[in-house]
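Hello again, I could really use a second opinion on something today. I've dropped the whole record in just underneath, so have a look.
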Amino acid sequence: MTELLKAFGAKVTGVRRTVTEEENHLSVDKMISFDMLEEELPFADHIVFVLPGGQETDGIFTARHFSAMKPGVYLYNLGRGNCYREEDLLYALRNGPLAGAGLDVFTEEPLPPTSLLWEQPNIFVTPHSSAISQEYIDLFIQEWLESLREL
């Protein structure tokens, strides 16, 4: 994905919880650790989450991070819905700094019809379609089969 973004002239900053020299990939312009994220957010035009689920990422992106963004930024979540509180996202969409969001994952899936996210004109909602990618389809099928077995 980063190669495609860079082909269109985007400058890509990667963020990891910890960074080692081996992780300074050529496909990103810069790799930073998560503790430096607040310093970088004011420079971003687009923020893309591809975080894994789990306790380590539960609520990792806070209201403080949203307030560090510059006005007019767009956010996309393609990873897991647990990385921020939806109330913080709604506040940032209604009051700034977010101009809009593309959301593929949510805390509760499918997104309930009563969710306030449906009412936001500046959100594009997709039905967890990141699972359709070639890189993820085998894992998606395996997870789906496990879910069926549990039923």
Summary: The longest strand covers residues 98-103.
